Each structure stands twice: as structure tokens, then as C-alpha cells.
Amino acid sequence: MPLIDTHVHILGFPSFDDLSEQIRTPRDVLQFRKRFPDLYNAGRREPAYDNSQHLLEQMDRYGVTHAVVQPTSGNTTNDMVAAAVRAHPDRFVGLGGVGKQQRALGYAADPTASREQAVREAERCLGELGLRGIGEVSVRAITREINPEVIADDFEPLMAVLERHGNAPIQLPTAWTQYAGGLRYGDPAWVDDLANRHPAVPIVLTKMGRSIQHLFDNALVVALRNDNVYFDTVGTTAEHLRTAVRELGSDRIMFGTDWSATWRWVRDPGDVHQMRLATIDEAGLTTAERDDILWRTASRVFGIPVES
Ligand SMILES: [Zn+2]
Q1: Using CA atoms, how far apart are residues 153 and 133, in angstroms rounded to an integer?
Q2: How far is the CA of 187 from the centre of ligand 1 (A)?
Q3: What is the Å distance from ligand 1's center to 8 Cα?
Q4: pLDDT-based confidence at residue 186 (cuts at 50, 70, 90)
Q5: How far is the CA of 29 from the centre of ligand 1 (A)?
Q6: Are 194 and 159 in contact (CB under 8 A)?
Q7: Which of 6, 153, 204, 264 has the smallest number of Cβ neighbours within 10 A?
Q8: ∠203-53-134 over CA atoms, to 5°?
Q9: Torsion over CA of 156, 234, 264 and 75, rounded to 10 degrees?
Q10: What pLDDT, on a 0 to 100 scale, did the predictor assign at position 11?
Q11: For the chain, which domains are there?
């Protein structure tokens, strides 16, 4: 059976090679930057290296056949993601990252330059590098506006790149991250205007509100109003997943783990693969609904040929 993990951040840093002392639970990841600022900063500034071997071991342990990989935040490049995909074309599909350095190390007051850079980089990712879409956008690197219509204006050139490349998918993160700033954009209500203007571009609201009730509710209403909006299951609850399947349909939902250089150290109550798969098991879904979430929706949205 195919099993597609649509949410993985590859690339690691030497200082993050063993975080078993610092990270045990999901809450430790959330607090890592504040509790270990020197280690956090050192890690994010170091040149990244390809840690996909660790990912492949973990995928094999849980029967994950394919992973949609994107760069982790920090001193990483999309060229490294493209190289990892070229090395494992039967296991990986790649997404480009934009604004990743600012996300890890701090946002510029004026996002104009990083917005323009993001547009050029997205073009390079989908063209020259052959990546399949754009991964979790660091929204604050694109805009500092809070009016959803003006945010959508600021996204216009980036969305035009996606449309030009066959309506390539884009991920927008919901709820919190381990990075400083930009929390406001984790409430996905603003995405309604963006999704409405670009109805052919698949927009994945990653984490579907991350189990926080009002963020889930807003994610759901945005998805109900826009057929091009999808969810991934990272950090959600069985209850929210059940509600999303009932209201939206399992053909709009995809499995994800959020495995990364920091999340890979979580082991309580389980590692990220155990935790995310357990949520799907606990949701009490039909076989057809599970198949949609575990591979069928992702196969369609990210264009991954699978044998079922
Ligand atoms: Zn992520």
C-alpha cells in the first residue's frame, strides 16, 4: 500500500545532530528557541547538510513509500532539496522554500525585498530545479499587512508564478511555529481572499489549526468556501480530523508528519510518525477515507504516481 507523507522538512545542521537532551516532547520543540537561544542560533546559521538518510530510515520503519520534502528553516537552499530528490526520485517529491532564512533568524522590517526575492526563487524552483510546488510560506517574509485583501495583493506575483507553472500547489502554515514572529498569519481566515482570487491553485493549510479550536474553525470555513483549499493532518486531533472528513471530505485531506531537524527528536508520547498515524487510527474512519488521507489525495494534488 502506498503511504505519502506530504509534510517533511529535510536538511539539518551540525549543532542539531543530537538534541536528545533538549527535545523530548512537542512542547520542547515549541520552547527550544527560548530555552536554548545560543544553540538555536548557532544551528540555524550553520551551513546545512543533507540528513535525508535519517528520514529514509524512519520512512522504512513506518512503511512510508513517498515523502513530499521541503527545506527546513535556516541556512538552507532549494538546490539541496532538488539534489536530495534527484538522489531518491522514487521516494521524494520536492517543494521549494521561500523566506526560510528570515523565518529562522528574524524578519526585515520592510518585506519588499524578500517578497521580490521569493518570486524569483519560486520561478527558479518550479522551472530550473524541477520542484513540484512551494512549501510552507513564511508569510511575514512576503507581507506585513493584516487586511486580507492587501495580503492577497502582496501575494499576487508569487501566485502568478504558480499559475504559470500549471497551477502548482502551495502550503500555508496555520497556528504556531517554533520561530519568532508572524503568529497573526497562523489564523487562516485571511486565506479566504487569496484562495478566492486563485481558484485553480491548490492551497494546503498545513496542520488545519494545529488542534486549536478557533483556528480549526476558521480553516474549515475557508476550505468550505474554496474548493482549492486542502488540509494536512500534522498536529491535529482525532476529533478535528473526524469533523473535517465529515464537513469537507477525505479527498481534501492529506497525511503529514512535519519530520524535521528538531521534530525528529520528539519521542514522548511517541515520535512524529507514531503520533500522526495514531491520530488517523483514533478518528475511526472508513477504509476509503483512510486511503484518501494516507495517499490518494496527495497523489492527485502533488502528481505522485503510485501503485495501489
Ligand atoms: Zn512544517
Answers
A1: 20
A2: 15
A3: 7
A4: very high
A5: 12
A6: yes
A7: 153
A8: 15
A9: 10
A10: 97
A11: 4-301 (3.20.20.140)
